[in-house]
Design brief:
Distance between the termini: 29 Å
Number of strands: 14
Helix content: 40-55%
Largest sheet: 6 strands, mixed, barrel
Shape: elongated
Structural class: alpha+beta
Number of helices: 15
Strand order of the largest sheet: 3-4-11-6-10-7
Length: 456
């Protein structure tokens, strides 16, 4: 009988112990590989989500908050920028793209981006991947909106649907669920501001638990195809429409007449919360130098905050690097526990296998060969766990990516680095072999004569 068959039969004689130990090691290996894979996939997804913007300007307190609020819609920005400052920035440099945005409103929990039509024609949600319309067209009037694919899917709205926007995030104080209701306007009723008759479409708005802009009804004129980024969850509205909506609120609070058109807007009404910028890029030449030049010029202005989205994404992942280390340490701890279980299982089995080892010795098996058999058995348990762990990591990463895409529309592409997987698997086998040293030495020292005595 070959040594390999001896080892396999020994493992098969203890199926429960062998399988449990392998699974423990497999879970540790899968956790280590998955953490690294998902972290890198998340970084790529975040970097992809900044689109083709080189810089973003806001009045926020820090560059990181500027990017998180202005591009990833984490929270409504707290401070606006006057239109005069926006014009000064836009006119002060030959930008290839300069798109103002106003954030702060929402619809059923989805952020609203009030901006210009260039947001859907010039800005790209992912580099090299422009917006595409599934249905409808870009907005043209002040009270028209375009829905991201996730918004359309979750709300059920379609071309021609009408809605009210909500100031803030649109959530009640009593519950974390989005507040909202659906009712119908009578056909022929006039819409506020626009004065046009309503044709019986469902009219969706938030209930009175939120601050609803019920002075204006917006109409859906377009629905976007999925981009695989967080931008799929936004409602894109016209910037002038956003100015009018907030002018209604401000003047009503002051007891002044409401504006009837964009021409009635004052300078205090024309506020934006962010400015997406892109510098010119010459064919065959990098953009780093001109981006740095523009960045340095804007940074001299103390009234605004300028940020490089890609740099801030790197900073964000640097901040959470310590948390990654905790998970890696957890995986390493589980791996060490699994390796220790290999040692304990083999150590305990040596007590029951003394007679078997003595018989092997009588049949001509040397002490060194016995030592090698036990070490091989230990290493095979580690190798089996490592192989299963790699399979679990690949399958788990793909399942997590599919679930994330189904729930949020964000696409990540987890990839297990072959070199990293080989290193982790090799380290696992090595540790398992080291764990088998103590049982192997015990088998090496097993006395033959004492263990061949007849059983009582």
């Amino acid at each position: 009988m070959t040594d390999l068959r001896l080892v396999l039969r020994s493992l098969w004689s203890r199926p429960t112990s062998t399988v449990v130990t392998m699974l423990l090691i497999a879970i540790a290996v899968a956790l280590l590989l998955s953490m690294r894979s998902l972290r890198e996939a998340g970084r790529r997804s975040f970097t992809r989500g900044v689109g083709n913007a080189h810089l973003i300007v806001s009045a926020e307190a820090s560059p990181l908050v500027t990017v998180l609020n202005g591009l990833f819609y984490a929270n409504p920005p707290r401070s606006p920028i006057p239109q005069a400052k926006i014009s000064e920035i836009v006119d002060g440099f030959p930008w290839a793209m300069a798109i103002p945005t106003q954030l702060g409103d929402s619809f059923l929990g989805h952020p609203v981006v009030a901006t210009t039509p260039d947001f859907l024609t010039v800005f790209e949600p992912a580099p090299g991947e422009p917006w595409r319309f599934a249905r409808g067209r870009n907005f043209e009037g002040p009270f028209e909106v375009v829905l991201g694919s996730r918004v359309a899917r979750e709300t059920g709205l379609d071309i021609g649907s009408r809605l009210h926007l909500t100031h803030g995030i649109g959530r009640s104080r009593e519950s974390t669920a989005p507040v909202g209701s659906v009712d119908e306007l009578e056909a022929g009723d006039a819409d506020p501001v626009s004065g046009t008759g309503h044709d019986g479409h469902d009219h969706v708005h938030c209930d009175e638990a939120g601050h609803v802009h019920d002075e204006v009804v917006f109409e859906v004129v377009g629905i976007l195809e999925p981009s695989g980024t967080h931008h799929d969850r936004v409602v894109v509205a016209d910037l002038e429409g956003g100015w009018l909506v907030h002018a209604f609120d401000r003047r009503a609070a002051e007891g002044r007449p409401e504006p009837t058109s964009v021409d009635d807007l004052e300078e205090a009404d024309r506020l934006v919360t962010g400015l997406l910028l892109r510098t010119p890029v010459r064919a065959g030449r990098g953009s780093a130098a001109i981006v740095q030049q523009a960045f340095d010029r804007l940074r001299r202005d103390p009234s605004v905050t300028v940020a490089s989205p890609s740099t801030q994404v790197d900073n964000l992942f640097g901040i959470v690097a310590d948390l990654d280390a905790v998970f890696v340490a957890l995986g390493a701890g589980i791996l060490v526990s699994g390796v220790c279980s290999v040692m304990l299982a083999l150590w305990n089995s040596m007590e029951l296998r003394r007679r078997q080892i003595a018989v092997l010795r009588v049949l001509g098996c040397t002490r060194g060969r016995v030592l090698g058999l036990v070490l091989t058995e230990s290493a095979m348990v580690g190798m089996g766990g490592a192989i299963v762990g790699v399979i679990l990591a690949v399958a788990g990463g793909n399942i997590a990516a599919e679930l994330l895409a189904a729930r949020t529309g964000v696409v990540i592409e987890p990839m297990i680095d072959a070199r990293g997987a080989i290193l982790v698997a090799a380290a696992t086998v090595l540790l398992a072999g080291v764990a088998g040293l103590a049982p192997a030495i015990r088998a090496y020292r097993t006395p033959v004569a004492e263990n061949l005595r007849p059983l009582d």
